[in-house]
Amino acid sequence: MSEIFAKSFSTGAFAHSSCQGALTSDDEREMDERFYAYTSRKDVVDESCTSRGFIVMENCLFLMCKFRGVTLVIKYNDGFNFNDLVSKLCAKWSELVGSSLNIAYSMPGHSCCGLQSEEDLEVMVGLALSCDIHHIDVFVKCCSLGEGVGQRFAQGVVEFRDALSKYSIHSGFNFDFVKNDKNRVTVHCKRRANLGCLWSAHARVENYSKAFVIKQFDDVHTCGSYFRTIKHARMTSSMIGGLISSDIRNKALTSVSEVVCDFKDYYRTKVSYRRAWMGVEKARGLVFGDYSSSLDDLRWYVDAANACNRGSVFDMEFDIDSKGRHFKCLFFAFEACIHGFKYCKPVLMLDGTFMKGGQKGYLLAATAKDGNQGLYPLCFTIVDSESYDSWHWFLSKLLGILTPGRDIAFVTDRQGGLLKALAKVFPFSSHSSCLMHLKTNLKTYLSVKSRESKEYLLTLFSRCAYAPTIELFNELFEEFKGRCGRSVEKFLENLPNECWRNPYFQGKSYGEMCTNGAKSFNSWIRDERHLFSTSLVDAIRVKLIEQFSRRREVGKKWNRIVCPFAEKKLEEAFNDTKAWIVKKCSDDIYEIQLDHSVMVDIGKRCCSCRLWEIDSFPCKHGFCVIKRSGKELICFLDDYYRVCSYCDSYSHSIYPVPSMWKPNIVVDDDVVLPPFCKRPARCPRTERIPSKGEIKRIRCSRCGKIGTNNRKTCKEALF
Which band of pLDDT confidence, cut at 50, 70 and 90, is reported for residue 11? Predict the structure, then answer.
């Protein structure tokens, strides 16, 4: 017996069947009992397997998959997922198909636990590890017509018709309804009339249970395999939507091409791209709701979110006409984000991104950075467009959640409505334009044609913007103007000096001159931008929960005073300043003698290079003086760079908004209608339209000209 079990461990599979004549049902049951009893004895297994050269890991988990009297043992490994389980089952039993499987498993005290998704598999493995179980009984059942006469369908005729369609798709044949009502269904093979095929099925309802039961089933197609097909008309978009709904819930941005490939691999059928697209849209409607219902659900969600997250700000406004209330805009900021921003650097990056899918509108966001340069979303607004009114309303709400008297610096792109609204709502705040956008717009004004020259000029422009002193800026800017034309000078003359030149910036920028944080946020919610209003807000909440929880745990593990970002900069400064000569002039003023002398005043936290004042972080000169003076370096760092401030940024939690007791939709006079703006007739835009300077220009290998075409798309005439 030990040899048999050792062999089963080495192969990773163990199957037996009562229909082969080798074992009776009693022998099979006895063999199962002996197998479980034997595998539970760790010393015996170790001894028998070791003596034969096999290694048994202590935390192995085996799935005992049973179907029609046959048991298939599958070893669970890291990376094993639900699709792998379905593939192994379908490979073992050819009559099974992924769309018609009903899988369950048993645990001590619970004889039937559902196993229908990746989440169920993770729960099962977690329970097995927590209970120290090494094998689990898994029961496989075919939800189609695989059981034949006597198979019951508790949900009635709808479930039977669905199973009939799935069975027909799996077998590759089609059928016609002879009788089809709520009490009885009779079907024949579609080739019965011309080829006399005998395949048929009949089912009717039971009076006492109202379940549908198969009474007659001839499972043999006498029409031959010539008429089998993988392109089936009964694979409708509704069926596709029902089959992929769980995948859409886990991955909202499931592509249509993935669905087409998955159905060919797992369901052995071919679906058209259009039908798959309709199925994806219907699945999203099943999971996330449609556009109109999602807007109306905002009424419930706003109240529920406020009740679960006290101190959060949710404000929704409407346009009212004779038809009722139309959605206009929604502002939301969670209490944990509002509280945590007090411990983040006082710089906000403002940007907007368009909504994808069937909903037209924009999502405006204010994003900050924590002490470790991590993305920190503060608040959001859903509006119909990026206009002055939208930005003014958003900034007015933003002003209400900020700490009174705290100076905030803003980094934005050059969107006209945003600039006007910012000057109106925050007239005394510092503001800088995104350097990345300026360089993109500057490309259109450069007269040079070679790529190397353009890259050099753009790099020189960046050096001008980042120059810490007026003298260095003037020197670099004169060189830049000498290499550029008059159009570039005219473009830069329209820009205020304080918006893009470091020496003229009036506030503290903390080294931020680009809206890369806002762009990172847009990429962060790339998949969620396809969702409708309520689902989008809740998806952002879930992502914030994960981010806050993860960074809270990371912060607890840091056994240091300052964050790793600041620690790295200080370490670089230490390595670069070891040989510097420092002379003390007074208690606070020092001189560093290099190729040129530098004065540092650690009392005022300033340096001749002005980098300490601009970045609000000790420059290399300041670091060197602080270390040589014998004073504590931590006293000269802003609190934002300390680990304690980082932990305080994520100290509050964002709580779930349970929808278990969500009321049913009630059509009343207070329903929220879609906004006035109508969705355009064209297909929804999924990519941002680049500005003129952002279009990538390449050299065509066919015609040799600079443009947007390559060899494949070139239309130039060659002589």
Answer: very low
Q: Are residues 161 and 250 in the same domain?
A: yes
In a domain, 666, yes or no: no
Q: Do 643 and 558 form a contact (C-beta atoms < 8 A)?
A: yes
- Bridge partners of 65, per DSSP, are 72, 138
Residues 283-316 have pLDDT tens digits of 887 877 776 677 778 888 888 999 999 999 999 8
C-alpha to C-alpha distance for 139 and 334, rounded to whole angstroms: 45
Tens digits of residue pLDDT in 581-622: 889 898 889 999 888 888 999 988 899 888 888 888 899 999
First to last CA, the chain: 84
Q: Confirm whether 649 is domain-assigned.
A: no
Domain of residue 457, residue span: 436-504
Q: Are strands 375-383 and 347-354 parallel, antiparallel or unpaired?
A: unpaired
Measured from the Cβ of residue 657, the count of other Cβ atoms closer than 10 Å reads 19
Name the CA dihedral angle for 520, 521, 523, 528, rounded to a multiple of 10 degrees. 170
What's the confidence (pLDDT) of residue 679? Answer: 52
Residue written as token pair 């699945």: 283
Predicted local confidence at residue 242, as pLDDT: 82
For residues 116 and 103, give the distance between their C-alpha atoms in angstroms, rounded to a whole number.
6
Contact of 377 with 347, CB cutoff 8 Å: no
Tell me how far apart the alpha carbons of residues 84 and 265 are, in angstroms, rounded to a whole number: 12
Q: Give the mean model confidence (pLDDT) for residues 430-457.
A: 81
Spatial contact of 532 and 359, defined as CB atoms under 8 Å apart: yes
CATH number (domain holding residue 8): 3.10.20.90
Q: Using alpha carbons only, how large is the chain's radius of gyration in Å? A: 34
How many independent structural domains does the chain possess?
6
Cβ burial, residue 339 (10 Å; 0-12/13-18/19+): middle
SS3 readout for 572-613: HHHHHCCCCEEEECCCCEEEEECCCEEEEECCCCEECCCHHH
CB neighbours of residue 653 within 10 Å: 15
Euclidean distance between CA atoms 462 and 439, whole angstroms: 8
632 phi and psi angles, rounded to 5 deg: -75, 125
Pick the range with the lowest mean pLDDT from 26-40, 130-144, 457-471, 652-666.
26-40
> Are residues 320 and 272 part of one domain?
no
Q: Are 123 and 162 in contact (CB under 8 A)?
A: no
Would you call 105 helix, strand, or coil by DSSP? strand
CA 340 from chain center: how many Å? 23
Task: Report the relative pairing of strands 589-593 and 581-584 from DSSP bridges.
Answer: antiparallel
Residue in 421, 397, 393 with CA at minimum distance from that of residue 319: 393
Of 470, 504, 538, the residue at which a domain comes to its end is 504
Q: Is the pLDDT of residue 684 over 60?
A: no
Report pLDDT for 393. 94
Q: Write down the residue that tokens 């034949």 correspond to.
A: 148
Strand-strand pairing, 135-142 and 61-67:
parallel
Burial of 267 by CB count in 10 Å (0-12 exposed, 13-18 middle, 19+ buried)?
buried
What's the token pair of residue 210?
Answer: 């109202």
Half-sphere exposure of residue 143, counting CA atoms within 13 Å on the CB side?
Answer: 18
Q: Which residue has the tokens 């009630």?
A: 666
Establish if 575 belongs to a structural domain: yes
**330 lies in some domain:** yes
Last residue of a domain, one of 238, 256, 287: 287
Q: Is residue 695's pLDDT more than 60?
A: no
Going by C-alpha positions, the residue among 640, 498, 633 that lies closest to residue 577 is 633
Residues 389 and 419 in one domain: yes
Place of tokens 């039961």: 213
